[in-house]
# Entry
Amino acid sequence: MKKQILTVTLNPCIDKTIILESFCEGGLNRAESARSDAGGKGINVAKVLKRFDAGVLAVGILGEGGSEAVTGELDKRGICHDFVLVPGATRTNYKLQDKAKGQVTEVNEPGFFVNEKALNETVSLIKKYLPETGVMVLAGSLAPGIDADIYKQLILLAKEQGVPVILDADGTAFREALEAAPFAVKPNRFELEQLSGKTLATDEELLAYGRSLLERGISLVVVSLGAQGAMYITEHESLRVTLAPIECQSTVGAGDSMVAAVAHSIVQKKDLVSLAKTASAAGTVTASKPGTEVCTLAEVMAYQEQIQVITL
# Structure
């Protein structure tokens, strides 16, 4: 059975986390400490999968400037990777962590420009790895120059090889990709409201709209609800997960941890209850960590005992 998980990041970054005792808007701020990490949603997913001891390959596009920082960290973590390099600098995303308020303010750069030649090289690269892939993860924003329908194109390519795709995107790229019916999607409440054009305030409204996505050919809808838990919706079963309270230090990477756990669970052929517990635990444990730190499998397994699952 093909067990390799392929993560695709089309707008990677260097996440710079700056810890502040308190953030003064419009004034001088002195950092208490700072750290830089390779980032981008697909890369974050790969980090978690490596901690789960899963077979994972991270691919995508990198700007030549700063590329060594990204690939060097992946090498240190033992994560296999293959990126197309393009002129320009890999973007830096800033996470300003206010300890006093327990808040993180994010400032994301747009990223390098990708021309048609580089994009075609990237698509060819992904096609090369699909025959050995068990699950493909498409996650995150698109660098300037990349058409919004790229995720749709990649989903269709994956379907030709019988590879299920997990999609974690927003805006036009998300809307376009739904037309190709990926295997699974992981929107949050806001992203679903953007898609539906209406407020989805209750569980009943979220469930009804989530089920409407199944009618488009999607097999699994995961609705992440932050501290309020999550919903997991399939044709035959729908679950509502609630979480034990934690001290949230940073939500950066929490959603990516959920996606990683979903991918791992699909490869492991887990049932929906097991998948839901693993994914929700992964997101919650990561949220309890500072900066861009992510969960370990041992931490996820331990926290699962505190998760409640209700069948809807």
Notes: The chain has ten helices and 14 strands. The radius of gyration is 19 Å. The mean pLDDT is 94. The longest helix spans residues 272-287.
